[in-house]
Write a structure and sequence with these properties.
With 96 residues, this protein is an alpha+beta fold. The protein is built from 3 helices and 5 strands, in the order ααβββββα. The chain has helices spanning 3-15, 24-43, 89-95, and strands at 48-50, 54-61, 64-67, 74-77, 80-87. The strands form 2 sheets. A 3-stranded antiparallel β-sheet has the order 1-2-5. A hairpin with a 6-residue loop joins β3 and β4. α1 packs across α2 (24-43).
Length: 96
């Protein structure tokens, strides 16, 4: 599903409830704001969890040495941070 389809589907789902009447532009703005907040939280090293769907955590990857497969020479990889994504129960169940 592409972003345009996601925005359209969310807007149509929300329009079914009388309390919330949003336009596609508003839905897209909400989606952009959510993305911005997730990126900001991950950039500062915080954990982000959307209950039942996904959890984003930042983990430290230590420096290591590996071998170049073509030349066999050792190469040093510096330490870095990595985003770990864990799929939570509802999303796993939906896939099966």
């Amino acid at each position: 599903m592409k972003k345009v389809e996601l925005v359209k589907n969310i807007t149509e789902s929300v329009r079914g409830t009388e309390e919330f009447a949003v336009t596609q532009k508003e839905t897209e703005a909400y989606l952009t704001a959510i993305k911005h907040e997730i990126v900001s939280a991950v950039a500062s090293g915080d954990e982000v969890m959307i209950p039942g769907l996904v959890k984003f955590t930042v983990v430290d990857v230590p420096a290591r040495t590996y071998r170049n497969p073509q030349t066999g020479e050792p190469v040093n990889a510096p330490a870095k941070k990595k985003v770990k994504v864990k799929i939570l129960s509802e999303l796993k169940e939906a896939a099966n």
